[in-house]
Amino acid sequence: MKPGKPATSPEAIHELRVALKRSRAVLRLIRPYLSKQSFAGEDATLRAIAKKLAPHRDAEVIQKTLERALEDCDADVRRQMHGRVSTLADPKKDPAEKGAAKAAVNALRRFLVQREIRPGAPEPDFKMFRWGACESYRKARKKLKRAFKTRSAADFHACRKWCSRLFLQLQVLEEFVPSKMAKRIPDYDAFQKELGKHHDLHLAKSAMAANAPKADEAYSLGQVLRSLDSRAERSERRARRDRGLFAASPRSFFSSLG
């Protein structure tokens, strides 16, 4: 995190979450060179830290997503629902959640300080990452097919996780083949971001629907939910348009990178 930035600010939380995702993505790239116990322990530690930050990330995303959805609504609906949106799922009101974020920051710092490169570890090269990159690509490809078949928000979310992991791994591989990665990374970045939008929209819809509307809010709530559904459908269509990114077999995919 940047010096002087509060540990629980939205920017700090975002930076920390990206660092956690990147660490877990790299961990999977080098998984063949770790013992099963070592990998499981490291991954579990990072996952536990990330879990503590989830309420903060979700609250900010829900609010911003709903504010954008209100742009599609009538002026009267925007005025009526603005107050509800601005106060929905605000973790700053919960001291326990704020404490959890600080604990997560400290836990990650301890984790990074305690890790060091083992003597005799192999010098990194492009081919040593083949297994990890192919695993992420294969999982993303498989889960994408399922998501398009079921159109389930949970399946799209599962696919998004692996697509995001693959994108972060490609950034690591860019050091070895920069010219080829420069052409591939933006496409996979855009794809995982589109799936991220899809997830955020369903997250916002669930949060909004879970709060029972007042008697005079039913019409306004319906309009907001329809806006969220419409935006989610557009995200899904854009993802379908670019599904060719996962048309190749995992082996052919990796060969095309190097």
Structure description:
This protein has 258 residues and is an all-alpha fold. It has a single domain, classed as CHAD domain (Alpha solenoid), CATH 1.40.20. The protein is built from nine helices and no strands. α1 packs across α6. The chain starts with 9 loop residues before the first helix and ends with a helix.
- Kindly state the mean pLDDT as a whole number? 82
SSE-based structural type: mainly alpha
- C-alpha-based Rg, rounded: 20 Å
Q: Classify the beta-strand content into a percent band.
A: under 5%
Fold blueprint:
Elements: H1 10-29, H2 36-70, H3 75-87, H4 95-114, H5 130-150, H6 153-173, H7 178-210, H8 218-241, H9 250-257
Helix pairs in contact: 1-2, 1-6, 2-3, 2-4, 2-7, 2-8, 3-8, 5-6, 5-9, 6-7, 7-8
Features:
single chain; 258 residues; mainly alpha; CHAD domain; 76% helix
Question: In a nutshell, what does this entry contain?
Answer:
This protein has one domain: CHAD domain. The chain contains nine helices and no strands. The chain has helices spanning 10-29, 36-70, 75-87, 95-114, 130-150, 153-173, 178-210, 218-241, 250-257.
